[in-house]
Design brief:
Layout (H helix, E strand, L loop, with lengths): L23 H17 L4 E5 L6 H13 L4 E6 L2 H7 L7 E5 L12 E5 L7 H12 L15 E7 L5 E8 L2 E9 L16 H4 L7 H15 L8 H12 L9 H4 L3 E5 H4 L4
Parallel strand pairs: 1-2, 1-4, 2-3, 4-5
Antiparallel strand pairs: 5-6, 6-7, 7-8
Helix pairs in contact: 1-2, 6-7
Keywords: Methyltransferase, Transferase
Organism: Streptomyces flavalbus
Protein name: Class I SAM-dependent methyltransferase
Length: 272
């Protein structure tokens, strides 16, 4: 008798905690910055990797992506078979659920993989290999069409989605880091440090770029204190404008007004 080979999903089970609207800031950023790629594609597939104990984030991702790309499809992927079974009643046109992990068990090469609050439980030393594996599953860059290829968005947020930091990666590797917050809840920009993704959270120490960035952001925020009379949004806008003098901010006022700022990964990458 020949033993039948079995393939186990790659990764470990997460805590699975999730809440409706928890990932709204990330979703809206994806729709705004990656929507054109999704619209151009004949079959725009997005993967919600490690969606957790309830399928809310996958359901919401489909709704938000379709505001930018009406034909987008979402596949929720979970390593816990019981969570997949619980999500199946929520399947509908454009939304399916599958058992799997970092191997991303979907046909072809997706245009988006979102992995929110998934790597938090892993060691920092494991992140690079996971990123490489997931980036290898993305749709490739196609210079003939101007396509930048697929996008991996990996990051962490608090339980209700008020504070969120994520890294955006293309097939070639990390591109940017985005800091996003509900401005009314922010005392200072460095409050976001507790939500840094695993690749950066242990690097928020003197001598590391991300520490210097948050220090400078706090200084710009303090200098912009007079603008607080016009509201937290105006203070944030002023602080980010000042921050641009020393840091490669890649977005503009439209995104800043949402309580976001995006910086090139190379400027914040760990030194060793």
């Amino acid at each position: 008798m020949t033993a039948r080979a079995t393939t186990r999903p790659l990764g470990t089970v997460t805590r699975g905690t999730t809440n409706p609207n928890r990932l709204r800031r990330m979703d809206r950023w994806i729709a705004a910055t990656h929507g054109a790629e999704l619209r151009r594609a004949a079959d725009p597939v997005a993967v919600d990797l490690g969606y957790g104990a309830a399928p809310w984030t996958a359901v919401e991702l489909l709704t938000r992506l379709r505001t930018a790309a009406p034909h987008a499809r979402v596949v929720g992927v979970e390593i816990d078979q019981g969570r997949v079974a619980a999500a199946l009643p929520y399947e509908r046109d454009g939304l399916t659920f599958r058992h799997g992990g970092f191997e991303v068990p979907v046909p072809g090469r997706p245009l988006l993989i979102r992995a929110a609050n998934v790597l938090r439980q892993y060691d920092e030393a494991e992140v690079a290999a996971v990123w490489q594996r997931l980036c290898a599953r993305l749709a490739p860059v196609d210079p003939s069409t101007g396509s930048r290829g697929g996008l991996l968005v990996e990051g962490t947020c608090d339980e209700v989605g008020r504070r969120h930091v994520w890294v955006a990666l293309g097939p070639e590797g990390p591109r940017t880091v985005t800091f996003a917050t509900r401005l009314g809840s922010l005392e200072r920009p460095s409050d976001l440090a507790e939500r840094l993704p695993k690749a950066l959270i242990h690097r928020n120490v003197p001598g590391e770029p991300v520490h210097a960035f948050l220090r400078d952001f706090d200084r710009a925020w303090a200098a912009a204190a007079p603008y607080a009379a016009y509201g937290a949004r105006q203070r944030w806008l002023r602080a980010v404008r000042d921050l641009r003098a020393d840091w490669p901010v890649v977005d503009g006022p439209r995104r800043w007004r949402q309580g976001e700022v995006t910086v090139r990964w190379a400027a914040l990458a760990p030194r060793s």
